Amino acid sequence: MWMVDLIKNGHSPQNVGQDADLVAFQNNENAFHWNGIWMVNAFKENPDLEWGVAPLPRIGSEEAAYANSHNFVLFNQAEPDENKLQASKMFMDWIGRNSLRWAEAGQIPARNSVRESGEFTDLTEQATLARQVPYLRFNPQITGIYEVQTVLDAAYNEAVLLVKEPKTALDEAAQRADKLLEENRQKYGEVE
Hints:
The protein is mostly helical. The chain is built from ten helices and two strands; from the N terminus they run αααβαααααβαα.
């Protein structure tokens, strides 16, 4: 595992506490910090911090970056109100068309026309990170997937903290994840 090798080869310290890398970065004590785009505005608040952003480097055989998103959901109603449904759709469309404010808060808008606008391009950090949009990868749409993600995150932590070898941590996590997925299938049924 590439990140574990960074630790084993002395490029990164061992046994780093949660957010210690962030604190060190904000104190100009480490060279780079991987975090989400939402950190842009926090870094801007520190006038003494010299920083910039870049898309994630390619690690492995293809360009990919993990992504997550905020979502609006319209649930099926037992007694639907067509006026409320249309109003909700109009609201969501308005948010999408006006999502430059979303970007200013440290996000990347989903709407192509907003990302292609000059106003968005002027948001240097967000526009730089938006270059990754073509190869962002989201979790699969499976009910209960975030429970599974928690198991995988724990395995990642065990590996980078050198508690377990990466293969062992990931194999054990895969077994727990498979069990959780099966339990979710039993609980929720097949989701299409």
